[in-house]
Design goal:
The chain is mostly helical. Helix content is about 50%, strand content about 5%. The protein has one domain (about 1-60). It has helices at about 5-10, 15-30, 50-60; strands at about 1-5, 35. Helix 2 packs parallel to helix 3. The radius of gyration is 11 Å and the shape is globular. This is Sulfur relay protein DsrC.
């Protein structure tokens, strides 16, 4: 299981929610099976429904998103 906080901490170059979405998608492409939302991303562009956006990015990365 991958924690969102671990992704953010280990990638300090990620400075926007859009970049975080790409990082989450890439993590799924690399074979991570689960993503735990243990923190709320604190980026200026974080949308209100950020959990849905990151879940969609993760699903795209797994290949199940179409």
């Amino acid at each position: 299981m991958t924690k969102l906080s671990d992704l953010i901490i280990s990638n300090p170059d990620v400075q926007s929610f859009q970049a975080l979405e790409k990082l989450v998608e890439h993590a799924a492409e690399e074979g991570h099976m689960f993503l735990e939302f243990d923190i709320k991303p604190d980026f200026r562009d974080t949308p209100r429904k950020w959990e849905w956006a990151l879940e969609a990015a993760f699903t795209r990365g797994t290949g199940y998103g179409g």
